């Protein structure tokens, strides 16, 4: 009688069980022992707590009291005032591309959504149709999800471009430019707009100009990932300089923007994919295809995060408050950097530590080797990434001494 088969035709027992490292404690509650978590990719206050930005609290109240709002579906491409203002934030008030009507936005599920939708579009329509063979270049190292996002979109040829020079603890500009020179024309390059994750090392303005010149000559496609606008320098405009420069140089490009960090809206999943095209007609055609892609992936986006961002960006007073909140976060990171460096230098920790203050944004590539990282985790219960990356927001005035002396011990014991 029962039509239910005893075997579902799928060998679940053969499925490998995986753990996503950055999502934290999947298998249960956090360990009871007192630990210091430096592997998270989120802001923390000096009390080690998540921070709801005061401007966000205010706007949430405003939204809650607005009787005209409801929970109807948003348009497939998202809230129009969010999309337009998100693009304006990254491209700038005076963007010629915006004035020329050749910018479009797609509201996405965080920065990841922007990358995924952009990658899907490129695989379908860039450099031929269904062009899975176009090489996609990702910096070495990079945010670990970049690779998988492009693989999941169907790209088969994911390559690394040189970025980090471990010996000098800085940018390997020569290697990067060589890799661009030798990349096949029309290759896609994923570029971190600012506050490179995980190295905290960005090209200087002069270096960005060199990068743009090679990319232009070699017909390479810039796909910017802007996950930390405002976090790097505390200034939104400065952190968007590279994207704006590329646009001013006439590039057609994508820029995936995340508002997870700079609005502290991690779980609202709010991001935007800015599309800069040659002309208005091109952009409209691209957006029509984006609509088709979004329809089958998340159908239409959630509203709360987009409302918060749009309300903030469209009101001069709230906008000013937000900029101030962003600066508060950036300044705390800067302070922790200088305090950590000062302590390491005062302890006489072997090696040079100027990179701690030269790097920017949430992350620092400490330069700790795998043995030193293991010591930090096992003996000191300071959890950092295997690469030696730490989230500077894990540092507080209360744990600075402990962290500095632990690094000192680790470096002294395992040189
Ligand atoms: C470089 C980079 N890109 C994108 C993202 C994704 O951001 P979101 O949480 O908005 O998807 C992150 C988050 O850590 C990131 O570091």
Helix-strand layout with pairing:
Elements lengths: L35 E2 L16 H11 L15 H12 L4 H4 L3 E6 L1 H16 L10 E5 L4 H8 L5 E5 L1 E2 L4 E2 L1 H10 L5 E5 L12 H13 L3 E6 L9 H4 L1 H8 L4 E6 L12 E6 L3 H18 L6 H11 L1 H32 L6 H5 L4 E3 L4 H11 L1 E2 L5 E3 L8 H14 L2
Helix pairs in contact: 1-11, 1-12, 2-11, 4-5, 4-10, 6-7, 7-9, 11-12, 12-15, 14-15
Bound molecules: pyridoxal-5'-phosphate (PLP).
The site of pyridoxal-5'-phosphate (PLP) has 12 residues, from helix 4.
Main beta-sheet annotation: 7 strands, mixed
Round the mean pLDDT to the nearest integer and report it. 93
Spatially, the strands of the biggest sheet line up as 2-10-9-8-7-3-4
Percentage of residues in DSSP E strands: 5-15%
Order of helices and strands: EHHHEHEHEEEHEHEHHEEHHHHEHEEH
Q: What is the gyration radius calculated from CA atoms?
A: 22 Å
Describe the structure.
The protein is an alpha/beta fold. Helices cover 43% and strands 13% of the residues. It is built from 15 helices and 13 strands. The strands form four sheets. It has a seven-stranded mixed sheet with strand order 2-10-9-8-7-3-4, sandwiched between helices. Strands 1-12 form a two-stranded parallel sheet. Strand 5 and strand 6 form a beta hairpin. Helix 12 packs across helix 15 (400-413) and helix 14 (370-380) crosses helix 15 (400-413). The longest helix is centred in the last third of the chain and has 32 residues, at 316-347. The N and C termini lie far apart (70 Å). 44% of the residues are buried. The model is unreliable at 23-33 (pLDDT under 50). The protein binds pyridoxal-5'-phosphate. Pyridoxal-5'-phosphate binds at residues 41, 110-112, 143, 192, 197, 225, 227, 258, 260, 271.
């Amino acid at each position: 009688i029962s039509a239910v088969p005893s075997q579902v035709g799928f060998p679940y027992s053969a499925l490998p069980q995986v753990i996503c490292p950055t999502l934290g404690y999947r298998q249960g509650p956090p360990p009871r022992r007192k630990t210091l978590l430096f592997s998270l990719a989120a802001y923390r206050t000096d009390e080690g707590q998540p921070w709801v930005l005061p401007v966000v609290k205010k706007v949430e109240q405003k939204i809650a009291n607005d009787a005209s709002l409801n929970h109807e579906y948003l348009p497939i491409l998202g809230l129009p005032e969010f999309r337009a203002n998100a693009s304006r934030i990254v491209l700038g008030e005076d963007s010629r591309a915006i004035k020329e009507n050749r910018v479009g936005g797609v509201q996405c599920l965080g920065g990841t959504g922007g990358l995924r939708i952009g990658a899907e579009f490129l695989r379908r329509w860039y450099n031929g149709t269904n062009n899975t063979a176009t090489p996609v270049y990702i910096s070495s190292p990079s945010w670990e999800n970049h690779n998988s996002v492009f693989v999941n979109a169907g790209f088969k040829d994911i390559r690394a471009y040189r970025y980090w020079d471990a010996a000098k603890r800085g940018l390997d500009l020569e290697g990067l430019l060589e890799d661009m020179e030798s990349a096949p024309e029309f290759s896609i390059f994923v570029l971190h707009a600012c506050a490179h994750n995980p190295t905290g090392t960005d090209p200087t303005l002069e270096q960005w100009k060199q990068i743009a010149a090679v990319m232009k000559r070699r017909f390479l496609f810039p796909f910017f990932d802007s996950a930390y606008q405002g976090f790097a320098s505390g200034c939104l405009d400065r952190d968007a300089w590279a994207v704006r420069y590329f646009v001013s140089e006439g590039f057609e490009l994508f820029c995936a923007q995340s508002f997870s960090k700079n609005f502290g809206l991690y779980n609202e999943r709010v991001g935007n994919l800015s599309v800069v095209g040659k002309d208005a007609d091109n952009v409209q055609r691209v957006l029509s295809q984006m609509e088709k892609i979004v329809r089958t992936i998340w159908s239409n986006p959630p509203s709360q995060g987009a409302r918060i961002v749009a309300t903030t960006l469209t009101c001069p007073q709230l906008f000013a408050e937000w900029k101030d909140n962003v600066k508060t976060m950036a300044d705390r990171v800067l302070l922790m950097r200088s305090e950590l460096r000062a302590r390491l230098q005062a302890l006489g920790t072997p090696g040079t530590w100027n990179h701690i203050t030269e790097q920017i944004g949430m992350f620092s590539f400490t330069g700790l080797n795998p043995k030193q990282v293991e010591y930090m985790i096992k003996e000191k219960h300071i959890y950092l990434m295997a690469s030696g990356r730490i989230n500077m927001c894990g540092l507080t005035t209360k744990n600075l001494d402990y962290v500095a002396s632990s690094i000192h011990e680790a470096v002294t014991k395992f040189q």
